[in-house]
Amino acid sequence: MSKIVNEIPENFDVSFLTETESGTEPVIRREDGLIFFPALIRNNGGLYRYFDVPVKYKGQELADYDKCKLQCYAALRAFFYGPVTVQLEQQLKGTFAAHQYAVKLAFPKAEGDIPAGVTRFNAIKAEFWAAIDEVLTATGKTRADLPEQPFNAEAMLAWAVAQGMTEDAIAGYAQTFSAISLNLLHNGRNWNELFL
Fold it and tell me: How many CA atoms lie within 13 A of 103 on its CB side?
């Protein structure tokens, strides 16, 4: 696993953080009782951009970036979740759950660990797009013909009616979209995240 990433992960909000830039590849360094862990390192033609995360030193393996990252996962997650005020703002915008899971994926507890919430959301998102694709097939349309995104279930069903879909088919898809909406709600996610 490379410590250099191509970009900030999808849904990962860093707008509240300050980046560090360096002309040399950053390394984990120790100062007094802290280590500074360079996270989300991106190389842009020899200019390295990253977030220097302070973590309490507890004997982590500083010479092995990946091992240290796993040893520091909780502190790294806490840093990237941000202060409570940031989390509350994200919750009001409906983006916190997506950000939280992006952070968990970037800083897993163990190699290859995927949080159950991510797996559940991916299944809901797949079900949603499978239903959309069924509607498109039934109407002879493609995703390029869809209403402007993000659209809600009502807009999608109104669009399907305008494309000539039958009332029985509309009723079935209304139930499908209602179930998807409830599953999102029960998993702390929201409809707009289906389009990210």
Answer: 20
Confidence of residue 3 (pLDDT cuts 50, 70, 90): confident
**Each residue's pLDDT tens digit, 157-187:** 888 889 888 888 889 988 999 999 999 988 8
Q: How far is CA 185 from CA 49, 99, 105, 173, 189, in A?
A: 36, 16, 21, 18, 6
Contact assessment for residue 69 and residue 107, using Cβ atoms and an 8 Å cutoff = yes
- Each residue of 126-151: b (16+ CB within 10 Å) or e? ebbeebbeebbeebeeeeeeeeeeeb
The reply to whether the predicted model has a pTM over 0.90 is no
Structure tokens at 127: 């079900």
User: Residue 15 — φ and ψ, nearest 5°?
Assistant: -60, -20
Task: Convert 17-45 to b/e letters by CB count within 10 Å (16 or more is b).
Answer: beeeeeeeebebeeeeeebbbbbbbeeee
Two tokens, residue 130: 């499978």
Q: H or E stretch including 71?
A: helix 65-71
Encoded tokens for 104? 């968990």
E strand segments, 101-191: none
Looking up tokens 């309490």 gives: 56
